[in-house]
């Protein structure tokens, strides 16, 4: 299948690879990134695949987001994929959290993806496929938490998971599927060089999951390999 996908955080990491693989498959890609002037790899990809439309968007700049929503009014978006994310400072164990950084992480990982869903849900509802996917993380799973710590990033993704569940209920009658995804432990700036899989491996599997979604999968949390993760 092909259609239109909107992805955030497309200048590097998993977002850049998602852009490449969907464009290669003939999808029109609204490739959002915070600063197009610094997005050399995305701009090079666009030169190769004209179906890519690079769009400047800082996901925490809601004025910019709402203006984009107005500019794209009436434009069907089959898949809205909220990929942009921020880990925040490392080593923020018990007694060491930075509250200001915690607020920044919540803004990027929790509030911004919700705002994207609110801003673009009419576009998704106007499409044939009607999927909103949120890039969460297994470390946001409460059931999976056996090592403690990670207060900032964990809590931002746990809250995102709850948003996925509520959106799946609230948008059900409009035919929209809403899923949370874990991309695996991926070799990116965030995942680090010791991660288990490449962006190409993660995205090839995610693409299968994203293009085989349906309302039966709404309000659920999936690993990149298609297995379900407990909340
Ligand atoms: P990277 O750190 O490599 O890339 C993060 C991307 O998010 C960059 O494009 C960055 O843009 C963008 N971004 C961050 N904040 C904003 C913002 N305010 N506005 C616009 N763009 C923003 O991370 P990954 O590619 O590894 O991660 C992608 C997603 O996958 C994230 O949501 C992450 O939490 C999740 N994830 C990743 C895992 C991994 O192992 N890598 C594991 C589990 C989940 P800029 O260059 O401008 O900062």
Describe the structure.
The protein has 231 residues and is α/β, with parallel strands linked by helices. It has one domain (4-223): 3-Layer(aba) Sandwich (Rossmann fold). It has six helices and seven strands, in the order βαβαβαβαβαβαβ. Strands 3-2-1-4-5-6-7 form a seven-stranded parallel β-sheet, sandwiched between helices. The protein is globular, with a radius of gyration of 17 Å. The relative contact order is 0.15. NADPH dihydro-nicotinamide-adenine-dinucleotide phosphate binds next to helix 1.
Order of helical and strand elements: EHEHEHEHEHEHE
Average pLDDT, all residues: 97
Number of helices: 6
Poorly predicted regions are none
Report the count of strand segments: 7
- Decide which structural class fits the backbone: alpha/beta
Report how far apart the termini are. Answer: 30 Å
Please state the overall shape, judged from the principal axes of the Cα atoms.
globular
Bound compounds, each kind once, are:
NADPH dihydro-nicotinamide-adenine-dinucleotide phosphate
Keywords:
single chain, 231 residues, alpha/beta, Rossmann fold, 6 helices, 15% strand, binds NADPH dihydro-nicotinamide-adenine-dinucleotide phosphate
Write the layout of secondary structure elements.
Layout: E1 4-7, H1 13-24, E2 28-33, H2 40-48, E3 52-56, H3 62-71, E4 79-82, H4 99-125, E5 131-135, H5 151-170, E6 177-182, H6 199-211, E7 220-223
Parallel strand pairs: 1-2, 1-4, 2-3, 4-5, 5-6, 6-7
The structure holds NADPH dihydro-nicotinamide-adenine-dinucleotide phosphate (NDP).
Residues 8-9, 11-15, 34-35, 58-60, 83-86, 108, 135, 137, 182-183, 185-186, 188-191, 195 line the site of NADPH dihydro-nicotinamide-adenine-dinucleotide phosphate (NDP).
